[in-house]
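User: Round two. Same drill as before: sequence, then structure, for each protein.

Assistant: Same drill it is. First protein:
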Amino acid sequence: MSASVSEIMDADPVSVGPEEGVERIVELMHENELPGLPVVDDDGILLGIITESDLLLFDEPDDVDPPPSVQIMGGVIYLGSVKHWEERVRKSIAGTASELMTDDPITITADATAHDAGHLISEHRHNRLPVVDDEGHLVGVVTRVDVLEALLEDR
């Protein structure tokens, strides 16, 4: 039988508040060797998550230059996704966790199984999932490695 998420998660994850600065976020990720941090409010409610990819602009010209466009009769028509471009520009000038984080992250509950967590991690191509209670409080983080170890023990 598959272990529950509560059995395999880190029940005391490092997190940051929405007003935490980018430098401190990078420092915490480095000190704790973490690829991401949950963002919580003063009551411990999960607001979002910051990952390494939120901090890095992999291909700067493509990420911060607007998509190709044409001008017709004084108006501009973009030929590519403006949403992606706007998001990357916003993150490139972010100064706080709330400006940098990905809102509404994929989460799981502590009573879910390791198999359930593995499915979500695989489906969404994440390395870690915040674990929340019914009110949205952060109660832990479960990683891909946690899940793999649990699933190997089930064999």
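Second protein:
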Amino acid sequence: MNKLRLSIESLVYSQTQSGAYVLVMVEEGTNRKLPIVIGTAEAQAIAIALEDMNPPRPLTHDLFVNFAAAFNINILEVIITKLHEGIFYSELVCENFANKIVIDSRTSDAIALAVRFKCPIYAYQEVFDKAGVDPDTLQNSKFQEDIDSDYEPDTLELKHKTKEELKQMLNDAIKKEDYELASKIRDELKKK
């Protein structure tokens, strides 16, 4: 099957689905996008890796990375293999010495691991044909509001904080393992 290489374009809070995020993947070399709705915990796991945050204790995906390293397992690539009844399915293509192993995975977990392993992410052409959107089509899709949105919960409060207050809040959020809030605080710090 024809594989299309993807990269993460953005991760935004969903305006249309409460408690959800939209992970926007873009086909490399084009503007075609693959929006994937994921939960808050999954979005947090991806955001932590994208931001190179180091939690005080390993989270589940970090534990997996440590476990894989202990047994000389590497993830070579992640493939989004199919879309069935609105659910994306993925595989981790792993290597242990000379052996290749394919492991079924939720797409959000697969992408969280791909970011940590710094491996390529692909989708089969068939998946992109079903769920991918080009920029013109995106203007009329249900995801447009999510992708264009600058809304983030609690950001209004953050805009009025000083850099020093934000740094303290960031440290507190990391200590409490509230990585979703920590990511928002870090974004606000970058703006200042």
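The longest strand covers residues 73-84.

User: Perfect.
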